[in-house]
Amino acid sequence: MAHTPRLAHAMLSATAVAALVVSISYGVLAPIAFPFAFATIYLIAALVGLPLYFLARRTGIAGWPAAALAGLAISQIQPLLDRTPPGAGVPVEPAWLAVAGIAGGLIFWKTVRPPVEMP
C-alpha cells in the first residue's frame, strides 16, 4: 500500500500536535506530561481514529470537516468515561481536549491527503 508512509507520517504529526496542546494545559509540568499524552493519544488515534478515517474514505466523506469532527468526537471519549465531577479528578479539561482533537484531526488530514497537482 503506497499510502502507508504518508499515513504513518500523518499519525505521528497529528499525535505530536494534539499532545502538545494537551501538555500546555499542564503548565510548568508540560515537558513531563508530553510523553504520556503522546503515548495515550497515539493509542486512541490508532484504535479509533484510523478506523474512522478508513470508513470516511470508503463512504466518500473524507475531508477536513470530517477530520475536525472526528478529532473532536474522539477527544471527548475520556471525559465521557470519567465519572468524577469536573475539576475533581479529570487531569485535562474537556475544552483542552477538544482543541487538541480538532487540531490533531486537521493536521492528520493535511498530512494524509494526496498532494494537489498544480497545472
Topology:
Blueprint: H1 4-24, H2 30-59, H3 64-75, H4 77-81, H5 94-112
Helix pairs in contact: 1-2, 1-5, 2-3, 3-5
Keywords:
119 residues; 0% strand; mainly alpha
Record field, number of beta strands: 0
Supply Rg. 15 Å
Amount of beta strand: under 5%
Q: Multimeric state of these chains?
A: single chain
Name the structural class.
mainly alpha
Q: What's the overall average pLDDT, rounded?
A: 86
Shape: globular
In this structure, how is the largest beta sheet organized? none
Number of helices: 5
Helical content band: over 70%
Low-pLDDT residue intervals, each spanning 5 or more residues: none
H/E element order: HHHHH
- Tell me the span between the first and last alpha carbons: 27 Å
Short description:
The protein has 119 residues and is mostly helical. It has helices at residues 4-24, 30-59, 64-75, 77-81, 94-112.
Could you characterize the architecture of this molecule?
- With 119 residues, this protein is mainly α.
- It has a domain at 48-113.
- 73% of the residues lie in helices and 0% in strands.
- The protein has five helices and no strands.
- It has helices spanning 4-24, 30-59, 64-75, 77-81, 94-112.
- Helix 2 packs across helix 3 (64-75).
- The longest helix has 30 residues, at 30-59.
- The two termini are 27 Å apart.
